[in-house]
Amino acid sequence: MFEAADAEKFEHPEVLDEHPTPHVHGLEEYQKVYKESIENPNKFWGNLARDMVTWDKDFQTVRSGSFAHGDMAWFADGRLSPCYNLVDRHAIKNPDSVMKPLSFSTFSG
Question: Is the pTM of this model over 0.70?
Answer without folding.
Answer: no
